[in-house]
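User: My notes are a mess, but here's the protein and magnesium ion's SMILES. Can you give me a structure?
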Amino acid sequence: MHNIAVHQQSFPVQPAQRFLVFRDMAIIAAAFLALSLFTPLYWLTDFAVMCILVLSFDLLYGYMGHLSFGHMLYFGAGAYMASLALLHLAPNPFLAILAGLVCGAALSAVVGFVVVRTSGAAFALVNLAFNQIGYWLALSGLQDYTHGEDGLPSSVEALWFLDFRQAPVAFGFMLVCLLLVFWLLKTLTASPYGIVVRSIKENEDRVKFLGYNTFRYKWLTFVISSTLAAFAGSLYALVKGFVAPSDVNPLENTRIIFSVLIGGAGNLYGALVGSVAFEMISNLLATTIARWEMILGLMLLALVFWFRRGITGYAYQLYLDRSYERLVKFAQGMGLSLRRQK
Amino acid sequence: MPDLISTSKLSKSFGGLVAVNRVDFQVPEGQVAGVIGPNGSGKTTLFNLLSGYFRPTAGSVRFLGKEVTDQPPYARVGMGMARTFQLVSVFNSLSVWENLVLSSFHRRQQGSRLGSFFFKPAREASTLADCRQALETVRLQDKAGVFTSELSYGDKRMLEIAIALSLQPKLLLLDEPLAGLSDHEIGEVLQLLHEVKDNFTLVIIEHKISKITDLVQRLSVMNEGSLICEGEPGAVLCDPNVRECYWGRETDAC
Ligand SMILES: Nc1ncnc2c1ncn2[C@@H]1O[C@H](COP(=O)(O)OP(=O)(O)OP(=O)(O)O)[C@@H](O)[C@H]1O
Ligand SMILES: [Mg+2]
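Assistant: No problem, the inputs look usable. Here's the predicted complex:
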């Protein structure tokens, strides 16, 4: 159409490097294996599940800019549904995971239709309201199924080599699941869809003028994020063999939000670093200090005032500053002077 | 030529303020139309009604022969309407090329492309080819990898126009594309508009009338929400009513 003669100049965008995601997956696996040298395996199994949950939250909050106080609803729904499948259908782990996924997807598809109409504070609070309802259902509304406060025990049958009672097996399985989720989210966020999600964060109205029905994309992102949370929930039910209302407790959302803030939102790595850091801190502090939540409060203050972009954001900034200094030195060596912008 | 877009008794009020008042506005296909008028006369509001940003208080909008008054913005874009904003509006948190993936990918996306929409890296060559072409049109190809927040205002304006062009519109609405630009940048934008104007119908709001008189074939003048005069630019600018409201006094240029 618009054919205008211009000089053919280099296009400074590097082509996609598809293998990079596999390099990252290898690094994650290596980091977990390194941690296993001095951390109990059952801790790391929990960490991996938490990582999945926080990764799923990062898609919604970090990428699309929608802060939810109700993400635990889907974690809990997945956990309960997986346990119910184990109890009433068959003690097969894959069936349980499937049940958890279907439950999370169906629930979030319906709830999403309502919550995605809001944004900002309203979005956070409407989600909290749904989470409260879910909590109440687990405690009393559906206690015929959930056994209320007593919780729901379940057991998985060993399938081939897959015996969740063996710590290394459970850990290995969760790690593989984590890598799969990471691959999925990394791929989704690097695709054109990922750009749409990020653009909605900045200015949803403007995206509509590029021809996107933003409601659809917000709904879809909500469903993907919630379904992955339900995935984490069903994995949790498998390794714990027990689900209780505290696993749907809306207060637990602070753990997720905390983790993503500590690590840095909107880049996936932050979610991983943040959840491991948060779990480490809370596990270690809880055994040494009686009122450890107070330390968490102080950390949150530090985050808000000094490290807005979390550990990964801070590290990236350091990296940028360093490489900028290197550039300045190099230029000076060439007899040039670069002035710092901004 | 049939009208590409037309309105009938289109009105919009904000509280007691009537920003657009029973406007009948038509643009025939292929035309370059200009809209002028003093500050606050309702030009931007008219664009917002045409593009679906606001629902009109009364009246209707037809586009491509179809009634679109109740269609949301994205549906109108899908039909072939693109616009820019008075205050440049691009995505500052994305890089320049990502801005263009956003606009150019969607246009090409058909059912079979769904897989690549979700699972193919946006940096894939096929997507980037479109971006490169769009950027070359506005001569920003050297800044493809830059964060949009680091662009100058003029470059952002160029990028916004490139985004609009990459939607391959049938109708392009430009809201004061020259505002806030240096003389040099104004020259570049005008040159670009001259190059591409034959590909679509163009409606342009502009304060600097002298800059666009050789671009537009027809001028519409708004004042206090109403269209007060329409026609060939030379004649419109000599109309006593227009001179009265626009310059507030009689001048003797005509
Ligand atoms: N969203 C809104 N809410 C309330 N009033 C509005 C809104 N948008 C526009 N107005 C009012 O409507 C009137 C017309 O505004 P509009 O922006 O359409 O004028 P304009 O012709 O584009 O002016 P300018 O040349 O300054 O861009 C103004 O009085 C403005 O204050
Ligand atoms: Mg205006």
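Residues 214-240 of chain A form the longest helix (27 residues).
User: Great, I'll file this with my notes.
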